[in-house]
Amino acid sequence: MEQEYVHGYSESEARRLHDQAQTLSGLLHADTYYKDGERVLEMGCGVGAQTRILAGNSPLAKIISADVSEDSVRQAARLLNELRCDNVEFIVADIFHLPFDEQEFDHIFICFLLEHLADTAEALSSLKRVLKKDGSITVIEGDHGSCFFHPNSPDARSAINCLIQSQASAGGDALIGRRLYPLLKEAGFREVTISPKMVYADANRPDLVEGFTKNTFTAMVEGAREKALALGLTTGKRFDKGVMDLYRTAQPEGVFCYTFFKAFALL
Ligand SMILES: C[S@@+](CC[C@H](N)C(=O)[O-])C[C@H]1O[C@@H](n2cnc3c(N)ncnc32)[C@H](O)[C@@H]1O
Questions:
Q1: Integer Cα distance of 107 and 91 in angstroms
Q2: 110 CA: nearest ligand 1 atom
Q3: Which CATH number does the domain housing residue 238 bear?
């Protein structure tokens, strides 16, 4: 699984995940809060970019954060230790083989994980097993089909499509945000609520231009270059032009929009 993961585990990807989480913290986490003593499973914690926000927002909840990548878990544990967060425990685990008893958790939190999995129904079923009856699940995913920008550019669209296709070739779905509602319903969760969270960035919002348009989204597309070329999806010249055009949307006259989907449901 680690080898198939489309974004890889480089230092620049770790930086991108932290930029993304910090930049979007207000938008994505304003209503994520867990009560004192509740047990929360964060699956796919990566390098701890969301973990630090979860832990800070719910300092008295007990958070168990897990990822299939041993190296990412090590980095996450080091970070949370540096930040003196003592309400998080880390483990290396695969979502399809969870080393927990049935109904161990009051809540489950996953962010940018389902989009990478070939069998999302199986993943949700595995999570259901360890969730208490009446427990909640929160799922945050993006949808690369939701982005539009100025200046528009067919090359930029083509580069984004290369990322979508690269992810699909590894079994993932970069357009999963729009499917969270049916996925959770079909998995047997109830009271499924979806909150679309739109990012809008122009020169009046320099933090979003820097943190989202450049350092999160365009950096992510840029990271798909090698795979896109290896799959024969484009030429290097066209891909680079597309990435350059995406950076143009971060110029003073540029605009970039993207929608995340945050799902909340009960078991
Ligand atoms: C895009 S990263 C998101 C990390 C973190 N949630 C964040 O938002 O910063 C996706 C993470 O899912 C992990 N992952 C992929 N497949 C997994 C699996 N089968 N079980 C557990 N984690 C998995 C990857 O190792 C990676 O750390």
A1: 17
A2: 6
A3: 3.40.50.150
